[in-house]
Amino acid sequence: MIHEALGLLRRELVTYLSSHGYTTAEDIVVIENIGLFESAASGVNLDDKIVFTLVNIEEESTLKNSAFIKKAFSNPAQYENPPVYLNLYLLVTACNKSADNNSYTDALERLSLVIAFFQSKNSFSAGGSISGSTTSFTGEDLLELTIRHEMYTLSFEQVNHLWGTLGGKQMPFVLYKLRLIAVTERKVLREVPLIEEIETNFSKIPAGH
Fold it and tell me: How confident is the model at residue 41 (pLDDT cuts 50, 70, 90)?
């Protein structure tokens, strides 16, 4: 589910950039580890790309103790463990390594478009995709996938620690918190027959007794 969520955002951003004149948007936006940017051994070229990197995952504590799911659409009823609801921290980097002298300002322009893209919608879903295609989404969970987001601001100390951990020099970036991504295996724990008839030991007592 995590890669589907990031894939949905990538396709939506590609569509958004294409509408703003970026004819090569499909090649510009990539899901990759930004820590490989300065690694010659990786063989990954991230020059002038917009890079999605997942930097942290946390469980949504308020939904941690959800009740078991009961699916009673068929006989017998089925019980499943509740989904794990996750918050994903997505680092979006506008890479600027290039021989072009305008590379850095171009990266800032792309980053501004990324921020405008997220500002344009409060949430993203497979059903409401602006890319116009949900053919790559299959299954109940994916079709119901909804991503809510908020910009997550780091202190200068946290920024320094983040890029130090990634092993590279800081580039233009923005960090978003993607809320309530549900992950579930849909594994049936047990099946219980549906109640079709109720028997009681009560009997009528004639009036006057």
Answer: low
Token duo for residue 76: 């017998």
Q: Report whether the peptide linkage leading into residue 83 is cis, meaning its omega lies within 30 degrees of zero.
A: no
Neighbours of 45 (CB within 10 A): 13
Strand 69-71 and strand 123-125: the pairing is unpaired
Separation CA 151–CA 82 (nearest Å): 28
For residue range 46-73, what is the model confidence (pLDDT) as tens digits? 889 999 999 999 988 776 666 655 555 5
Instruction: State the Cα torsion 173-164-100-24 to the nearest 10°.
Output: -50
For 24, residues 6+ apart whose C-beta sits below 8 A from its C-beta are none
Which bin fits 180, alpha (ψ -120 to 50), beta or left (φ > 0)?
Answer: left
Indicate the pTM of the whole model. 0.77
